[in-house]
Amino acid sequence: MDAKTFLRNHIAEIVEIDEDTFEEVFTFFKPKQVKRKELLIRGGETVLQEYFVVKGCLKTFCHDEHGREHIVQFALESWWVSDFPAHASQARATMCVEALEPCEVLELTYEAREEICRKWHSMEYFFRKKSNAGYVALQKRILSLLQNSAQEKYDLLLTQYPQLFQRVSKTLIAAYLGVSRETLSRLGKHDK
After folding, report:
1. pTM
2. Which CDD domains match (predicted)?
């Protein structure tokens, strides 16, 4: 499925949009091919865009003062990715976004999204619903990190996103869960 159809179907899951409107909305998006290990967002740079993932897998991450990587989000097909706090205020990124495999994304600038929302109420509703869903998912992730054991976090991730375990290294999954690679190996022995 091409990027345009993929986005059209994604929007149609939430709002009805006629073909002429969609054609105009699509002109605000910029298709982009991303190489494995390419950074879409670098820490310290002003964040003016967000990305809709058509194909591939990306990660949003930061490093602490000891150089340890902390993964905030993986983004698979039909997910949106950015450093959202920086994007919302068009500030400097505190996180990076990197492709874990060759990716195809649709880039949407902050100004373009604002223009889309001004012109079409249905698209403003779409973006509000997507933002709310992202906020809910983030709160659930924070609660899981605070309340669940390492095994429970592992099991939850495996249940919700089994495809991640086929596409992402165990080292990255360990960083996402906040456990060591050795701990992750022990956790994984339980699902055989």
Report:
1. 0.92
2. CAP_ED (cd00038)
